Request: fold
Amino acid sequence: MHSSTGGPAEGDPFDAGSGGILRQPKAVWATAGASVVAFMGIGLVDPILPSIAKGLDASASQVSLLFTSYFLITAVAMLVTGFVSSRIGGKKTLLLGLALVVVFAALSGTSGSVGELVGFRAGWGLGNALFVSTALAVIVGAAAGGSAAAILLYESALGLGMACGPLVGAVLGDASWRYPFFGTAALMAIGFLCVTAFLKEQPRPARKTSLLDPVRALGHGGLASVAASAFFYNYTFFTVLAFTPFVLDMTPYKSGAVFFAWGVLLAVFSVLVAPRLQERFGSLRVLGGSLVLLAVDVLVLGYGGHTAAIICTILSGAFIGVNNTVYTELALGVSDAPRPVASAGYNFVRWFAAAAAPFFAPKIEEWSDVHVPFVVAAVTAVLGAGVVWVRRASLAHEAEELEPKHATEDGVTVFAD
Reply:
């Protein structure tokens, strides 16, 4: 509750004194730290995509398959993560995922052709799926301050990783496109040691998860609506992430700086701005409005000059940060499915769009011109907002918890979170 005196709410995730986001066990920090590196791996190749294309004598559409193979395997693997973790436990699943990332990231750095690199990125995607999906469940289960603090901590790791990935890719990639892959392998190996040392084995669920449980969970109208909306949104998100570097056509350092600024905005808006907007306007209004603004942003990105493209790329991080936080909260709370199962079903749907966008955006450019991929991305963002609007009734259960509510108690106005 927030009183008119402005004191922090009970369990406020930003209140460090109440077991909030900054007061967490070592196990949570170890998992969150490894999550930062895992998310770095997504944006790591951004500033070096043109360098990889040149180094391996590949086209833009071929190099974009680095994202497609990665996320296609990640999407399918979402059906496996719960199956595995409910049998061998959360800690062993995290370590298995980390080990696979270490191996395939290192192998990526040794690639002699774009085909090899795409294949190794697929193996990397499997490891990342096992790690990332389990990390969210582990952080939520082990964090102090409840699920709100845990989700914000997870989004902080995502934002920091997305911000640092392009920077690390630029610094190491300026010498050779191979070095960022070796660097990621080394950082993930450190993450492996930290998780081994600080994370205790997590209690296993009473019921083992089957391979089809995440698909069955999508039978819930609310979760299916969130996943469908997130599918369209992720197409827009990964058009920006995977296709824009070719449009900007900058050196690794300059491209890395642009996407670092993008990632900083993503982190700030996901952790600091999104919760306050939700508290004031409600989750569904915030999500719908942010998606429409993202659509406008990518249209200007596609049709503006070079400077406008840089500004709009950076600015898109703000809308993406807000969207990520709201989607995660909706996916975890809108249905009665266990959180790991709901998360797996939701991610299974949305990562297919992350695989599709890097493949189709360069193809659409080849079939038409450089502007049309951004028109398509703007349309998918609007479609995501449309799903939220049309299905708002089925999303209201979770959203109403974050809807601004006003009541009067003894003449004092209070706001219920």
Remarks:
- The mean pLDDT is 83.
- The chain is about 75% helix and 5% strand.
